[in-house]
């Protein structure tokens, strides 16, 4: 079975997570178009959500992945596009269930909770 074409984007809050996701996917044989961002320098998340959602809606890519601090902003921005079903998930089980039951085509991940070390990072200290 052919693997789906993927596009991934992030803002600064999800940068580290995006890097880990891209590395994981590539090591498992997926081709992933990484549209950035490429550092923790502040950027506007809707710019990346719009690019990923547009690529999926147009059929250029099969599925999209978006990362930001909470995943919520990316989900809201992507869901503005007719034909996009974006969902914030925090683990592999939820990701699988929303893909099967909700036909989601954009996965939204939270850099704060889905961090490489999988722990919650309290912003208040």
CATH class: Alpha Beta
Biggest sheet character = 5 strands, parallel
In the CATH hierarchy, the architecture is: 3-Layer(aba) Sandwich
Number of domains: 1
Q: Can you count the beta strands?
A: 5
Mean pLDDT: 91
Treating each run of at least 4 consecutive H or I residues as one helix, how many helices?
Answer: 4
Looking at the chains present, what oligomeric state does this protein adopt?
single chain
Element order: H for helix, E for strand: EHEHEHEHE
Into which percentage range does the β-strand content fall? 15-25%
The outline comes out as: globular
Helix and strand content put the structural class at alpha/beta
- Radius of gyration in whole Å, from Cα? 13 Å
Helix percent reads 25-40%
The name of the CATH superfamily reads Sugar-phosphate isomerase, RpiB/LacA/LacB
- Could you tell me the CATH topology label: Ribose 5-phosphate Isomerase B, Chain: A
Strands side by side in the biggest sheet = 2-1-3-5-4
Terminal-residue CA separation: 46 Å
Poorly predicted tracts of residues:
115-125
Task: Name the features.
Ribose 5-phosphate Isomerase B, Chain: A, globular, 36% helix, disordered C terminus, 125 residues, five-stranded parallel sheet, alpha/beta
Structure description:
The protein has 125 residues and is α/β, with parallel strands linked by helices. It has one domain: 3-Layer(aba) Sandwich (Ribose 5-phosphate Isomerase B, Chain: A). Helices cover 36% and strands 18% of the residues. A five-stranded parallel β-sheet has the order 2-1-3-5-4, sandwiched between helices. Strand 1, helix 1 and strand 2 form a beta-alpha-beta unit. Helix 2 crosses helix 3.
């Amino acid at each position: 079975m052919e693997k789906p074409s993927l596009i991934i984007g992030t803002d600064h809050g999800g940068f580290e997570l995006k890097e880990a996701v891209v590395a994981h996917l590539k090591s498992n044989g997926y081709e992933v178009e990484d549209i950035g961002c490429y550092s923790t320098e502040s950027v506007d998340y809707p710019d990346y959500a719009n690019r990923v959602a547009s690529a999926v809606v147009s059929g250029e890519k099969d599925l999209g992945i978006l990362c930001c601090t909470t995943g919520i902003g990316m989900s809201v921005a992507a869901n503005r596009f007719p034909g996009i079903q974006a969902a914030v998930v925090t683990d592999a089980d939820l990701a699988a269930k929303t893909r099967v039951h909700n036909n989601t085509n954009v996965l939204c991940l939270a850099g704060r909770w889905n961090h490489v070390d999988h722990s919650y990072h309290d912003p208040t200290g």
